[in-house]
């Protein structure tokens, strides 16, 4: 396994970015940081690691997956091969072993042989191998859920509640490990519930009191599983629970969702139609020939059916890492068929059938892992796994050239916006710079919004950019409007494009797409920014899902932070960030005028306090009215928020930081809180946020 992994990775020629690098980079950072901290203070380092891991469960990328891998990277280095080999040993191999453990119970007549045949088959299944080869640690979560199923199979008839508690804890940790496993985790709980219900219905005892006792015990065991999940969530991942209760994930990921039939074709594509057909036949033949244990077969099939339904109907996302949840069904079904043939067939028929099955498994592995290629349109191609070739970046030399050229013309405080989706992005250029020049980043690469349902308008980053790299013509495959509008702004010569001048240097990709580079020559005025906002809104058609009630217009927006709470808005800038001058544009979701109550806090000792102004801009951007905001000695003020839309009129809150030339004192650091107009929302989320506010603000 390790030899194959090393050879596969050695064939890759790319800069790893996005998910293909995030898990690796996070684990490498943890390994480097805590190896030093443990040398200094083992107790303090352990306490810090536990605390930071617990807090990280709030975020999309937490630290749980790093805990078992980071020590290996300390020993063997942080290279790509070391990382992939580590997750293969620590996560992928245990996943295969837990599938093997279930296979031993599925085919009890050939226990140890069924175990090893399932382990080998799992490791030869491309849809199981490829997520690890791409850098995903998801096999760890899959191993945990499969372990939970194995524990249930082993102790299904037990009267002890401790095993049911253990199952609940394992499910919760799997979900915390990789959040999307909440779907197969829910499917597993549903499987246990249906199994318990059926066992209770068919339970036969002459005395009704015993039947009632049995029902109570079965119900209690299920309640203990759910309770174990809840307790583990609170103990190990309370920040995750907080986010789960306060975030509308359905809206957040709406842009990633695909039609149900597309998802089903994806299931077939990654494993191949033959795998699903053979696995289904395997369970059916094993059931009819009594080769397989029927309770185990029932549980695996039911779990897989619930998982397919939940993913195809509710989650509806595509990605190789999501296919791991279906591996137990595919692998165990094929194992069931193999041992059913072995047990019930004889002579030449058995030899031919097993040879054919073995040949299919090897051919599927060879095609899926790019050891053998087939013409894409051959009739047999859909029967086999999708081919996952080692990652090779066609634009490798172009990316190197762009990084070198940008480093030659810019300075470390000038922001660069990359508007060339599907070709290059800021993550790819950052990875390239890291690989070429080491971890000390020189280029300031602004984050371009990429997803309509979860990102904001790209206005703030465009207004802040000093350079913009634009694909021309815009790729036709870009389906996210927040990505297209920046390219459209330059292709269609919007007003904001006149704030930039084209540079003579440009790059041509292998596919004939030009990458043009524009340099800012003047600041974007608020009027131009608002006109651009109106055009972006018209082009996108609706407000992006990640857009809050305010947009920050600053030449260095990264120095300002903004958060919406259930009853207030919070703005704060970074300490020592320099001139805090900025404009906040209000995008109300309410049609009513609102008198907001605010408070501003200044910190920084002897420092210059910026002033606040209220600006109103007409819909045609023809005039701007400025009114000073009166802030009392305690920092309190009021601000009238008038209704408007992306098309105007607009209410702006301006932080005026420009002071006297050669100002001897620096600017104060600001924190501004502003009451939020009442609106209907998630009552549970609001209650949770109120509780968090109370716990944070109570006297200690």
Descriptive notes:
With 700 residues, this protein is of the alpha+beta class. The protein has three domains: 382 residues, no CATH class; 145 residues, no CATH class; 148 residues, Jelly Rolls, CATH 2.60.120. Helices cover 52% and strands 13% of the residues. It has 23 helices and 15 strands. It has a five-stranded mixed beta sheet with strand order 2-1-3-5-4. A hairpin with a 5-residue loop joins strand 4 and strand 5. Helix 5 runs antiparallel to helix 6 and helix 18 crosses helix 19. The two termini are 55 Å apart.
* Major beta-sheet overview: 5 strands, mixed
Alpha-beta content class: alpha+beta
Low-confidence spans: pLDDT under 50, at least 5 residues?
A: none
**End-to-end Cα distance:** 55 Å
Q: What's the arrangement of strands in the largest beta sheet?
A: 2-1-3-5-4
Quickly describe the structure.
By secondary structure, this protein is α+β, with helices and mostly antiparallel strands. The protein has helices at 2-10, 19-40, 42-56, 70-76, 80-106, 111-123, 126-133, 138-154, 162-177, 182-202, 208-246, 249-252, 260-271, 273-289, 294-315, 327-344, 347-368, 396-409, 426-437, 459-464, 481-491, 526-540, 683-697, and strands at residues 415-419, 444-446, 467-472, 500-508, 514-520, 550-553, 560-564, 568-573, 582-586, 594-603, 611-617, 624-628, 636-641, 650-656, 669-675.
